[in-house]
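U., I forgot to send this yesterday:
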Amino acid sequence: MKIDLKAAAEGAVGRLTRKEAASYLGLAVSTLADWHRKGLGPESVKVGGRRFYRVAALNAFINGNARR
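Result:
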């Protein structure tokens, strides 16, 4: 899956779906979901029953500046 990060970052809220976030991090969607259940991984927000990840939170996680 190709992600247009510039468009996501410039969007109304700059967020990615769990599938897009997993692709960006090079992980399986199930790994990202499992990390969330365990309180690990990047910060996320739930909107309308769906989980989203801000591009800035993903970058902070990659750089070691966010929760694990």
